[in-house]
Amino acid sequence: MKTRLNRLMILATAAALTTGLVACNKNDERTAGQQLDSAIAKTEQSAENAEAKAAAAANEAKMAAARTGEQIKEGAAEMRADASAAGSRIADAAGDAAITASVSAGLMKDPDLSAIKIDVDTSNGVVSLKGPAPNAAAKERAETIAKGVSGVKSVSNMLEVRG
């Protein structure tokens, strides 16, 4: 229906143009019918060109929408990966803090170690012990206490025996 209406409008426009051509161009030796046919052909060609341009523009818009959709999907995937990595780092940090607290609490229960300041640090499950130890046996007990805490992967015992 819409195409038919467009064709009728084109024909009406062509008729109006032809009438104008006939009135303005008296040197044209073509008949009014020939001039009308020429005007209609030109109008139809212009309409076809406009339709082709509209189709090309619609196709470009579809392609741009597809590219945008892909970029959104890629961005969402990157955000999920970043969020997962951040969550993992937070969990690791919380785990390390819990390990440090448990090791420190265990060291405080030992009578030889509780009165001595031992620095406990944990990174990715690796516990570092630094500071003084009253004797070699206390140094070994500190390492044993640290290794007994859940989540400890290894212990770096840098305690210095003083005594």
Automatic annotation (TrEMBL):
The BON domain extends over 95-163
Record-linked InterPro entries: BON_dom, Lipoprotein_DolP, Transpt-assoc_nodulatn_dom_bac
**Does the keyword field hold Protein biosynthesis?**
no
The UniProt keywords, alphabetically, are: Coiled coil, Signal
KW Coiled coil (keyword) present: yes
Task: Tell me where the transmembrane regions lie.
Answer: none
Span of the signal peptide: 1-23
Q: Which segments does the entry list as coiled coil?
A: 33-67
The name on file for this protein is: Hyperosmotically inducible protein
